[in-house]
Fold this sequence. Notes:
By secondary structure, the chain is an alpha/beta fold. The protein has a single domain (2-301), classed as Ribokinase (UDP-N-acetylmuramoyl-L-alanine:D-glutamate ligase, 3-Layer(aba) Sandwich). Helices cover 40% and strands 18% of the residues. The chain is built from ten helices and twelve strands. The protein has helices spanning 50-64, 82-97, 114-128, 140-149, 162-169, 181-184, 190-199, 240-253, 258-276, 291-301; strands spanning 2-9, 17-19, 21-24, 27-30, 45-46, 71-76, 102-107, 135-138, 157-158, 206-209, 214-218, 221-226. The strands form two sheets. It has a nine-stranded mixed β-sheet, with helices on both faces. Strands 3-4-5 form a three-stranded antiparallel β-sheet, with helices on one face.
Amino acid sequence: MSWIICGSVPDADFPLSLSSWRLEEGQLYTSAEAFLPHGGTLPALSVQRGTPALIAAALQVCQSLALPQPLALLAGDTGNGKGSLALYAFLSDWLPSTSEMVAGLTFHYLFPNVDGHNRVLMGVRAYAEKHPAPVLAADAGFMYAAKMSGYAGEYDLFTPDAGELAFLADENAPHPFYTRGFLLGSGLSAEELAQRAHAHGNCARTLLIKGAVDSVAEDGVLVARVDSPDIPFMEPIGGTGDLLTGTVTGLLMAGYPMRRACTIAARTNRLTGKLASPTPATQVGELIPFLPEALRQALADRA
């Protein structure tokens, strides 16, 4: 069974593609079996942040646990939404007709378009009429679209940071930019915000909340916290949340139950920081080589 990571690359010329990738010395290289519906070639990708960083983290987990590689459905998008819309259209048409067994989908940096999201969700539903329903996880732009659509409750996992959690808790906000100030600055706890998001149907069944303390909430109830090791220099490094989402994707691929996958991923992310000894100047790509040992330690902690 395949797991598909869906996201974008900040390059307008990067073609829509469905492919597996391999990680070599901080770069992603595609397999020879890449499917490019509109032609083109796939360049190597840097893993400095964004969806490529997520893919790299998932690959590290898969290699560590002897799992098949995930597939990645990618499109070039520099913020105007063109590539994301092409990805939405392709996926919504491909899912109902594919014979591929899809165990799960992780959605990441995509331009938040409600119509495109809804078409994809209809494609997922059509797929599930013939096959077991895939696990649905979302972060970043696609998570915004899922909340804005009113169908967030159909997802199994969202991975918001504190600001995104406040957006999910705001039943009126159409985009994180419009999150009301009383939610952003009120001092409400992660559990209180999760409860509010759940009550209004604006979040997935499980939330992996990223922050100084990582939290896991199920149906609005906080069920786990991960606060060690505490590595303050991880906070200013852009892309650590991408690594976390990639790590939990790999653990879900391995069949770990959702709550355990979330807590192990959070612990792995923190141990990665401890092993890397980062500074504020550290780039996220420099953390990735430490992820396999961090995962080994996190799994040993819970043995």
